[in-house]
Amino acid sequence: MATPTTPLWEVFIRSRNGLAHKHCGSLHACDATMALQAARDIFTRRGEGLSIWVVPSNAITASDPSEKGMMFEPAESKIYRHPTFYEIPEEVGHM
Amino acid sequence: MAAPSIKVSETPLVLYLLRRADDALILGHRLSEWCGHAPMLEEDMALANIGLDLLGQARELYTYAARVEGKGNDEDKLAYLRDVRQYRNLLLVEQPNGDFAHTMVRQFFYSVFADLYWRAMMKSSDATLAAIAARSEKESAYHVRHSSEWMLRLGDGTAQSHARAQTAIEDLWAFTGEMFALDQAERALVDAGIAIDPAAIRPQWLMTISNIIGQATLARAKGDWMQQGGRIGHHSEHLGHLLSELQSLPRTFPGARW
Amino acid sequence: MYTQALNASESDERQVEDAVRNAAFQARIDDEERIEPNDWMPAGYRKTLTRQISQHAHSEIVGMLPEGNWITRAPSLRRKAALLAKVQDECGHGLYLYAAAETLGTSREELVDAMLAGKAKYSSIFNYPTLTWADIGTIGWLVDGAAIMNQIPLCRCSYGPYARAMIRVCKEESFHQRQGFEIMLTLCRGSQEQKAMAQDALERWWWPVLMMFGPPDKVSQHGDVSTKWKIKRFSNDELRQKFVDATVPQAKFLGLTIPDPALRQDADGHWRYSEIDWDEFKQVLAGNGPCNRDRMAARRKAHDEGAWVREAAAAFAEKRKPRHAAQAAE
């Protein structure tokens, strides 16, 4: 009989100076409470974090890497979305 | 030639600090024995964290005790060169780890007390103690949470975990009374607002313990008789073995620096 | 280093794989692109990495034991705290690495079962005993020093999760070697007995540490694919030489003598060391080192005695699952 597996969780931490939660790893825990405690014990021993999110790994939907072209290349040619595309005379000042 | 024990001038505050420092050191040491042997890796991490917190508290308290004593001792002399009869920790913390249930029940009983204790001590009229209390309270709050969550999982997990947890409660109950005892040596400190009378926090402790034990589908132990003696150096047989190990190097190499 | 005793079976892989996909994959590798968990990869790449990363993880976990052996006897409170924190870090490293290995499709439980059954290996060095406090200093100085030599290039390995785990590990590892070296320094500046303790430890650990880097290049079998796939950036001998060159001056500084009377500096400044006893290495890998049986027994005991605890946590979680979610899943 195969050993039963413990659910996998992905851990996201927002650091002291950070604005967004960053993925920093994964861990095994039976429920959300234990996952949060384990995340605190494993990933914040050096003062890395102010906020932790734990998410069951199977709750995450990821884009298909083989569809990189379809998903992301069309944006590359639409440079009019970037501020540097537009020329503003210097006399106008900062914009 | 082994390094002999030091003599400590146990004035009231020094004695008071040694009692709390010894509690933290001995319990931290017990937890460190789990390192590499815990039921899962995540728990190796957690137990080490709790152990490190307690070790840190011990170091601060020993350092303060040595300063108050003013006889040139330091944290290491106090930890490594006092014998069993000079140690002042609670009997509860020197009990062997046993199985994971015993370790968690011991931690639960102690941490719920420690959290209430440190919170009350934040108002100590001794500024150093109040500062130590403020830092320690944050640590003990987490220890309460961690051990409480395990009490629930052990009590309301499987039949086996329930039985082990119940046995641990029965085995350790008689050591819980000592946490709330106040003796003559401490009375003056309480009157001066430096120390608290631990009896005052017992009702809250009992309520918290009972609440979690109930949620865990466990039962409190019966019986009122409580073990005592740790505070005056009358220890169980376990402490001698623990200290033999802990102190072996400085005892074997007198005066050596490490 | 963690490829010790990987057998050569991946060269026997006769997977019928799309030649075009393989070429595209190799092109990505050659371009220094990172391979991520959901990317297509040859079966051999997946298999090699799963074994290497998991053996690295096993090494961290078993590595907790020789050092853990001295936590209760650490001779000062400062050393006690540092050692407990270091061993805790090793546990954390094991966790990061198991997580990285799992992204390749094998569960942590399966990986651990393989180790406990003796089917998967861990680094040979952890089969040696820690006999004195000086061993703890020596492990930090030399074993962690060797590990760092190996881990820094791995931060650039082609597989994303492994590289990221290594970056995290390297950040934490820097205190480990310093802690060890400081212990050695204190001993060497201490009493005659302490200095002798340090010298004795160096003599027992030097050659096993050199063996950590694996067999000499002329003998090593799986270098080719690992190099082609940018898992391995430097050869065993290259890393070993780098390590010796860095360490000889450190030993001199400590006033210790490396147990290699023929150790000589060559015209290029490299320290040439004597022939290593590869028979000892083979024996240790085969399970006949001083502590193999003890290490395995300790890990099996922890695992077996902890089973009821893990079951309790799982049972509790099952009981607490929201009833509507359980019903929706049916």
Topology (elements, then pairings):
The complex is a heterotrimer of chains A (95), B (258) and C (330).
Chain A: E1 8-14, E2 22-28, H1 32-43, E3 51-56, H2 68-76
Antiparallel strand pairs in A: 1-2, 1-3
Chain B: H1 12-32, H2 41-69, H3 75-80, H4 91-94, H5 100-121, H6 127-155, H7 159-172, H8 184-191, H9 202-215, H10 238-246, H11 248-252
Helix pairs in contact in B: 1-2, 1-8, 2-6, 5-6, 5-7, 5-9, 6-7
Chain C: H1 19-30, H2 43-62, H3 64-68, H4 77-102, H5 108-116, H6 133-154, H7 160-188, H8 192-211, H9 223-228, H10 236-254, E1 264-265, E2 271-272, H11 278-285, H12 292-305, H13 307-320, H14 323-329
Antiparallel strand pairs in C: 1-2
Helix pairs in contact in C: 2-4, 4-7, 6-7, 6-8, 6-10
Instruction: Indicate the overall shape of chain A.
Output: elongated
Give the number of helices of chain A.
Answer: 2
Low-pLDDT stretches of chain A: none
The rounded distance between the terminal residues' Cα atoms of chain A is 67 Å
The SSE string of chain A, one letter per element, is EEHEH
* Radius of gyration of chain A, in angstroms, nearest whole number: 21 Å
Question: Looking at the chains present, what oligomeric state does this protein adopt?
Answer: heterotrimer
Largest chain-chain contact?
B-C, 48 and 47 residues
How large is the count of helical segments of chain B? 11
Tell me the domain tally of chain A: 1
Question: What's the CATH H-level homologous superfamily of chain A?
Answer: Phenylacetic acid degradation B
CATH class of chain A: Alpha Beta
Biggest sheet layout of chain B: none
Strand order of the largest sheet of chain A: 2-1-3
Structural class of the helices, strands and pairings of chain A? alpha+beta
For the structure shown, list the relevant keywords:
heterotrimer; B: 258 residues; mainly alpha; 11 helices; 62% helix; globular; C: 330 residues; two-stranded antiparallel ribbon
Structure notes:
The complex is a heterotrimer of chains A (95), B (258) and C (330). In chain A, 22% of the residues lie in helices and 21% in strands. Chain A has 95 residues and is α+β, with helices and mostly antiparallel strands. Chain A has a three-stranded antiparallel beta sheet with strand order 2-1-3, with helices on one face. The radius of gyration of chain B is 18 Å and the shape is globular. Chain C is an all-alpha fold and 330 residues long. Chain C is built from 14 helices and two strands, in the order ααααααααααββαααα. Chain C has helices at 19-30, 43-62, 64-68, 77-102, 108-116, 133-154, 160-188, 192-211, 223-228, 236-254, 278-285, 292-305, 307-320, 323-329, and strands at residues 264-265, 271-272. In chain C, strands 1-2 form a two-stranded antiparallel sheet. Chains B and C meet through α1, α2, α3, α6 and α7 of B and α3, α4, α7, α12 and α13 of C.
